[in-house]
Amino acid sequence: AQKITQTQPGMFVQEKEAVTLDCTYDTSDPSYGLFWYKQPSSGEMIFLIYQGSYDQQNATEGRYSLNFQKARKSANLVISASQLGDSAMYFCAMRRGNYGQNFVFGPGTRLSVLP
Amino acid sequence: GAVVSQHPSRVICKSGTSVKIECRSLDFQATTMFWYRQFPKQSLMLMATSNEGSKATYEQGVEKDKFLINHASLTLSTLTVTSAHPEDSSFYICSARASGFSYEQYFGPGTRLTVT
């Protein structure tokens, strides 16, 4: 069975500093996709970044980068130069296969950016 | 970019009544749509997967007779909560996967259901 673990229920970071949100996963599938989503208080899920299990390089999207360590089964999200608007819940998710369907979400980490 | 809408955004209904939530893909065709449920301060839990023109596949523990899902077209899926009870109060989120190869799911803004 697939499982996502996020061990940090809450994190604080000073504005303009970088922060790392942890995510570890468990799967026996050789092919899978890893995602990070942001959920502000309004509730919508905002896609941030994607990493395929066969991707050789770590994914980057603007201020977001994914530190993918396949052997350790970790996919940590790094947010550089934090902004007040980054305060939200962050969910790590995994999808079976490259184009499979089922998403499994982690429990989430609440990030608070301090001015 | 791909947009998914949900209607209504908020609904309050009385215990014992049914409520329908719509999920629409506005600018793409979605062969597959997913329904999630999120309780306060918890993560999203997949309830069911619906494919256009076929019966939905429900996750273990989800009552198919209580949560009726219809995916009648490539742009519309509906979730009907039948005989709602206060414990059904939750945030319901749909997502859609575009036809063909796509690694991404596009999420709707969610519907907050309160059953009184």
Commentary on this structure:
The complex is a heterodimer of chains A (115) and B (116). With 115 residues, chain A is mainly beta. Chain A contains no helices and 12 strands. In chain A, the strands form 3 sheets. In chain A, strands 2, 5, 6, 10, 11 and 12 form a 6-stranded mixed beta sheet that branches. Chain A has a 4-stranded antiparallel beta sheet with strand order 3-9-8-7, with no helix packed on it. In chain A, a hairpin with a 4-residue loop joins strand 8 (64-69) and strand 9. The N and C termini of chain A lie far apart (41 Å). Chain B has no helices and 11 strands. In chain B, the strands form 2 sheets. In chain B, strands 2, 4, 5, 6, 9, 10 and 11 form a 7-stranded mixed beta sheet that branches. A 4-stranded antiparallel beta sheet of chain B has the order 1-3-8-7, with no helix packed on it. Chain B is globular. The chains are: A mainly beta (115), B mainly beta (116). At the A-B interface, strand 6 and strand 11 of A face strand 5, strand 9 and strand 10 of B.
